[in-house]
Write a structure and sequence with these properties.
It is a single chain. The two termini are 12 Å apart. The longest helix has 15 residues. Strands 2-1-3-4-5-6 form a six-stranded parallel sheet. The protein folds into two domains: 152 residues, Rossmann fold (3-Layer(aba) Sandwich), CATH 3.40.50.2000; 199 residues, Glycogen Phosphorylase B (Rossmann fold, 3-Layer(aba) Sandwich), CATH 3.40.50. Helix 1 links the parallel strand 1 and strand 2. It is 34% helix and 17% strand. It is α/β, with parallel strands linked by helices and 375 residues long.
Length: 375
């Protein structure tokens, strides 16, 4: 059994931060001595953290430079870009990749790890095609401490609440999904709200990487164009949800998720979480989605083709990382799936709720520990 481990990872409100936080919690429960090397500033603001864990984490970070040595295994939770450096010689990378191909630089970074674990089985298969054998995959878990079922508000109008989440990105089809939903269900001022037949869309699509005025203006213009300059009173935007508890409330209010129609994902936490909470997600049957979504727990839409993943913002052409293609779909197929979802919106997703038991962070950590010991 491993008794000492270096963990190099971010802790913040973003997806990688959530994954790192949950892995560290399990390592603490297993009483493994952790030397924590933070990537970026530690931000615990979105979590409900007990003081014991906060003290443990602080001690693990303070002791890193005092106690690390090159023979202690390191788990690095990060992108391939930036993972050519490790604080020790025993290198285990837990990473996230979305496109359908790898670059020579990405392949070389992975070759120089003892083992690389991809989130979701899709990326493992992609890199196996390049002859890499030091690779595996890991499933994410349901953070049952942050995300759990609560009683939904019972609206007298019996509305159907839809959800669009995740960071605003081209590969996630955020603007396209917003446009499709607005054209199908959107209500402008003056159009009547008919009880029992109406739909409401909650959007949590702020991208925290849009930090300068130019990028924020781009974000606003994209939304304006998607809605064709119209104002819909049954579409609500949440600028920033500060805690996982707030996010959990919003997920629980949702009957149907369309975040699952992203064209490229390692896992897709919002769609997975809503499904595990008993809601329904319309999911593109491709990439990392296939590791957890199936015809029993989700409403699947098969891809129609591929398109370039390049967006000139997060995926830059002719660079050493994040090149290739993502999957696409026909709007008509999505519209059919939306009609199907609306018919079962108020029916609990029993198969979806089984994901909470099937995928846990304890199982994730056990898998990586076993692989680390074997190496």
């Amino acid at each position: 059994m491993i008794d000492k481990l270096i963990v190099e990872a971010p802790i913040n409100p973003l997806s990688l931060g959530n994954v790192s936080y949950n892995i560290l919690k399990i390592l603490r429960q297993k009483e493994i001595k952790v030397l924590y090397c933070p990537i970026g500033n530690i931000d615990l603001s979105c979590y409900k953290v007990d003081e014991d864990f906060k003290s443990w984490l602080q001690s693990a970070a303070q002791n890193f430079l005092k106690s690390f040595n090159r023979d202690v295994p390191t788990w690095k939770i990060w992108h391939i870009n930036g993972s050519h450096q490790f604080p020790s010689n025993r290198r285990y990378l837990l990473t996230f990749h979305e496109s359908d191909s790898g670059t020579p630089e990405e392949i070389n970074v992975i070759k120089n790890t003892n083992k690389t674990f991809f989130c979701g089985e899709y990326s493992k298969h992609i890199f196996e095609e390049y002859g890499l054998t030091n690779i595996d995959w890991f499933p994410l878990g349901m953070d049952n401490e942050s995300y759990y079922k609560i009683t939904k508000n019972k609206y007298e109008d019996n509305r159907i609440n839809w959800f669009l989440g995740g960071k605003f990105e081209n590969r996630k089809n955020t603007a396209r999904l917003l446009k499709i939903w607005a054209k199908k269900f959107g209500l402008t001022p003056g159009q009547p709200w008919i009880s029992g037949k109406q739909h409401f869309l909650n959007c949590a699509i702020t991208n925290p990487f849009f930090q300068n005025d130019q990028m924020r203006l781009h974000f606003q213009q994209q939304i304006h164009e998607a809605l064709e300059g119209k104002r819909y009173y049954n579409i609500q935007f949440f600028e920033h949800l500060r805690t996982n508890a707030e996010y959990n409330n919003l997920l629980n209010e949702s009957h149907i998720d369309i975040t699952g129609m992203s064209s490229a994902e390692s896992w897709n936490l919002p769609a997975f979480q809503i499904t595990a909470l008993g809601g329904w997600s319309i999911v593109l049957n491709a990439t990392g989605h296939k590791s957890w979504a199936n015809e029993k727990n989700s409403i699947l839409v098969n891809p129609s083709s591929k398109r370039s993943i390049i967006d000139n913002i997060f995926f830059i052409p002719n660079t050493p990382f994040s090149q290739g293609n993502c999957f696409d779909f026909n709007d008509e197929d999505l519209l059919i799936a939306m009609d199907k979802a609306a018919q079962i919106a108020h029916t609990p997703n029993i198969e979806g709720e089984k994901l909470k038991e099937e995928f846990t962070y304890c199982k994730l950590v056990d898998k990586i520990i076993e692989a680390t010991e074997q190496n």
